[in-house]
Design brief:
single chain, alpha/beta, 7 strands, 281 residues, five-stranded mixed beta sheet
């Protein structure tokens, strides 16, 4: 369900059917497919029987600073999902589990304000413990994607791309390629070896607004009793414009903070020189 006030009980973030998503990806020539619902693997479970499909999810995680972030976790099992959901309110606990289980994971839309505020120490945690950054998101501003790609390159992170498609129109248009692989295991081996290549479309205000209207159309098809509120949808372009401007502001703020004088996030696993000397003595 969407997290917009008043609509969270009646309107979904997406009305895509899993099999329709899978078919669309295959029609576009994708050899390996996954999908990432928010904090759920129900849709992915429907496709588990395909040899060219792996189960993933986008986890809403709370950082030590109290902020929230979306973590993509890939090629997981049902028991992993249960443990991930148990730990997602604690970033450190979650990362320890993902690392212990050798699950591949990423921080998504790094320079987006979609999950709310961000603190500088959040980037220190990302730099220290997250192996991959989403560097091209099909719904994000091109400059936000470019900032994520520069930061990932500076920190030696693996870069990923994903469509973030909440409607069928955007499915498979932004994707990660590992040349020459044929299986899921080969795909992840190639990713970990740094052979992944990002491709495809960035987001835009027009694309976002069109997708919101597509979701609204699906909502009214599912719940025709809500048609009396149809005139309210005339406000959508103004609402999405406000969101898009906030995304631009958020990106510029944190890009300037992290790129000023080539400043890099602090690696939290590094001992301070004074502490290291004390321990040695």
């Amino acid at each position: 369900m969407c997290n917009t006030p008043l609509l969270s009980r009646v309107c979904k973030e997406s009305y895509n059917h899993p099999r329709e998503v899978y078919t669309r990806c295959k029609q576009l020539g994708m050899s390996i497919v996954t999908l990432t619902d928010h904090d759920s693997i129900d849709a992915a479970e429907m496709l588990r029987g395909h040899a060219d499909f792996f189960v993933s999810e986008e986890v809403t995680c709370r950082m030590p600073s109290g902020t929230e972030v979306h973590i993509g976790v890939y090629n997981l099992r049902e028991r992993d999902h249960c443990e991930i959901q148990r730990r997602r309110a604690d970033f450190v606990s979650l990362v320890m589990y993902l690392t212990e289980q050798k699950l591949f994971f990423s921080v998504n839309h790094v320079f987006s304000g979609l999950t709310g505020r961000r603190e500088e120490e959040d980037f220190d945690w990302f730099a220290s413990y997250v192996p991959a950054f989403e560097v091209r998101n099909g719904q994000m501003w091109q400059e936000a994607n470019a900032s994520a790609e520069r930061l990932a390159s500076r920190l030696g992170k693996i870069g990923l791309a994903g469509s973030d498609a909440h409607t069928i129109a955007g499915v498979g248009l932004t994707y990660t390629e590992v040349p020459g692989v044929r299986t899921v295991s080969e795909f992840f081996a190639g990713l970990r070896a740094g052979r992944g290549v990002v491709h495809g479309a960035h987001g835009s205000y027009v694309k976002l607004t069109a997708d919101v209207y597509r979701i609204i159309r699906s909502f009214f098809v599912e719940k025709p009793w809500a048609l009396p509120i149809l005139p309210v949808t005339l406000l959508v372009p103004a609402i999405t414009a406000g969101h898009w401007l906030n995304e631009m502001r958020f990106c510029r703020k944190w890009t300037a903070a992290l790129e000023g004088e080539k400043k890099s996030p602090r690696m939290l696993w590094k001992l301070e020189s004074g502490l290291e000397a004390n321990l040695a003595s």
